[in-house]
Write a structure and sequence with these properties.
Layout: H1 8-14, E1 39-41, E2 47-49, H2 75-91, H3 96-103, H4 110-117, H5 126-133, H6 136-148, H7 150-160, H8 164-175, E3 184-185, H9 186-196, H10 200-216, E4 225-226, H11 239-245, H12 263-275, E5 285-289, H13 307-313, E6 316-317, E7 331-333, E8 342-345, H14 347-353, H15 359-372, H16 391-403, H17 417-429, H18 440-448
Antiparallel strand pairs: 1-2, 3-4, 5-6, 5-8, 7-8
Length: 449
């Protein structure tokens, strides 16, 4: 995750905030606060999997410094803040009429503050996540959505070069194919969180972007709804992402990602992926089988090789045959260590990371897209006896690795490529299989010294 393609610009600009930057600063991802993944029930009583947005690997709330609250929040303080912010917004070109419409009836939303301060730690294992992300229900609903919107998705694919199945999979994970788009007023939520102050700069940027959307006439204030954290519409764009990438695909003069017609949202998602480097016809990843004598020092995102290299090492596709050169350089990813599924990942894997950099999300989108398109489930197994490390344990893992002489470069609780490399070096020194898998068993071994 520390390669130039993966969020470095956004992180430097935002000091590891939970969302994106001013759109002109970078075309890289605009990450947002993680929200709980739940199963819900539709009004008809049908159980469906709803939005699945795991905590992000490169940008996490726990690892990001926050501004301490100067004073308790209050309705009077909020009104004073809105007045001051409006003055600054006018200086940025937001008209008074837009401000009047946007803030009419807006009040301090203490529920939003509560949600922001009490986000539960994301501690599901990858395989538990995939059980939901590529559940039978989500696959079936995705195939139905693909059929119902085939003409639109085909037209989007022709224009932006992003396969219909990939766009549908993002839609499926972000809002359960439009079933759960969020009902929190965006202006109220962004204003509340900006006033609350822990991440004032980020949420002020998003609030200003939301006002620009209103001023452009894309949506009315009472219809600009989404999640408590600011993500909006069928594919959950943050306001800054909207300004950078949203399109009017239907030609009605508005970029409407909120309405019942998903065309603008789906096209905006395809444009986002296209502008971040999507290659039509290239897999995001393929499942592979590794030979018994595989050199695990060759695995990980930091190592890229061509197909001939992997074929010479004995790497084979799980369904048989060798890798082909036309897909470009690739890496071997072992998201659950050497006993789990092995993937060869291509540049399109990293393009999906620009939407959300958590490996779980990327694999969820890619695998769901494959299954929607009729592909098989993973053949390899998962170490289902293992549990995910807690946030505190991830920090401890990094501290202990570094103290043992295997530096993770930073102590941030994020198990990214550098931490994985440190794990691999420690495993090799200890005579273990150097697969880079940061497990509870590995942490226990480190504790023993």
């Amino acid at each position: 995750m520390l390669t130039p393609r993966l969020f470095l610009t956004a992180i430097l600009v935002l000091a590891a905030s939970a969302a994106g930057a001013t759109p002109t600063a970078t075309m890289r991802p605009l990450p947002r606060p993680a929200e709980d993944s739940l199963q819900s029930v539709t009004p008809s009583g049908l159980a469906v999997d709803v939005s699945l947005r795991p905590a992000m690997r490169m940008v996490t709330l726990a690892a990001r410094p926050e501004t301490p609250l100067a004073e308790p929040v209050s309705s009077a303080g909020f009104r004073a803040w809105v007045s001051e912010f409006s003055r600054r917004a006018r200086a940025e070109g937001i008209g008074q009429q837009t401000l009047d419409r946007a803030f009419a009836g807006v009040t301090l939303n203490e529920r939003v503050i509560e949600r922001d301060r009490n986000q539960s730690e994301f501690s599901r294992t990858l395989w538990d996540y995939l059980d939901s992300a590529a559940s039978d229900t989500r696959i079936a609903n995705g195939r139905t959505a693909l059929r119902e919107h085939r003409d639109t998705l085909d037209a989007i694919e022709r224009r932006y070069g992003v396969e219909a199945e990939i766009v549908a999979a993002v839609w499926g994970l972000e809002s359960a194919y439009g079933s759960f788009r969020g009902s929190v007023p965006i202006i109220e939520a962004m204003a509340t969180l900006a006033y609350e102050g822990r991440r004032a700069e980020f949420f002020e940027t998003e609030l200003l972007a939301a006002l620009r959307i209103l001023q452009a006439g894309d949506i009315a204030p009472d219809h600009m709804q989404g999640s408590w954290a600011g993500a909006m519409g069928h594919t959950q764009f943050m306001p800054t992402s909207f300004l950078a990438h949203a399109v009017d695909f239907t030609g009605d003069g508005r970029r409407d990602i909120w309405g019942d017609d998903p065309a603008d949202a789906l096209a905006s998602t395809a444009r986002y992926l296209s502008e971040n480097g999507w290659t039509h016809g290239q897999p995001w990843a393929l499942e592979v089988e590794l030979p018994d004598d595989f050199d695990f020092s060759q695995s990980g995102e930091l190592i890229q090789r061509d197909a001939a290299h992997w074929n010479a090492m004995g790497v084979r596709l799980a369904r048989g045959g060798g890798l082909v050169p036309e897909h470009g350089p690739s890496s071997i990813l072992l998201p659950a260590g050497h006993t789990g599924v092995a993937l060869v990942i291509y540049e399109n894997f990293h393009v999906i990371e620009t939407y959300n950099p958590a490996d779980a999300y990327v694999i969820g989108v890619g695998h769901l897209a494959d299954r929607i398109g009729g592909g098989p489930a993973f053949r390899g197994g998962w170490p289902r006896q293992d549990r995910a490390l807690t946030n505190d344990e991830r920090f401890e893992l990094q501290r202990r690795l570094t103290a043992a002489g295997f530096s993770t470069e930073r102590i941030d609780g994020i198990v990214g490529p550098l931490t994985i490399q440190a794990v691999r070096e420690y495993q090799a020194a200890e005579g273990l299989v150097p697969d880079g898998y940061a497990s509870e068993a590995l942490l226990r071994r480190l504790r023993r010294g």
